[in-house]
Amino acid sequence: MSVILLMHSVASIFSGDVNNFGLLYLDTLGFSPFGLYLAWIVKLIHLFSVFIIWSDRYVKLVSICNIVILLLGIYFVHWQNGWYVVGGGTNGIEFNVLLICCFLQLYFTECPLRQKENCRL
User: Is the pTM of this model over 0.90?
Assistant: First the structure.
């Protein structure tokens, strides 16, 4: 999951897609003049989530942040494209739903192998 977040954030940052998403998509949805900032916040949350997950700290907080982002992504970007990401369609919600389930697993998993103080938000 962290590798997916890493690739999703780094690739869009270096390709410039995060700027296009903010300026050409979010701004047109009514988020102007904050679309660019929102796009960067989302990408930076994804990027920093990778290292937080790897450090095994604040996993519940990272899970909540990413679930909110993925749900908003479903609502604003993917819902109108249906279920499938590939195959029966494109840009659908199936991958977001899978990631949400993974983050829910992280959120609700107890921490028997690590100290309890690391399990906090």
Answer: no
Give Cα 29 distance to the centre of its chain.
19
Q: Which two tokens stand for residue 22?
A: 């903010």
> Is the distance from CB of 118 to CB of 57 less than 8 angstroms?
yes
Name the residue with tokens 């410039």: 16
Give tens-digit pLDDT for 5-29: 999 999 999 999 999 999 999 999 9
Between the two ends of the chain, the Cα-to-Cα distance in Å is 19
Residue 83 CA to residue 76 CA, distance in Å, equals 14
How confident is the model over 27-63, as pLDDT tens digits? 999 999 999 999 999 999 999 999 999 998 899 999 9
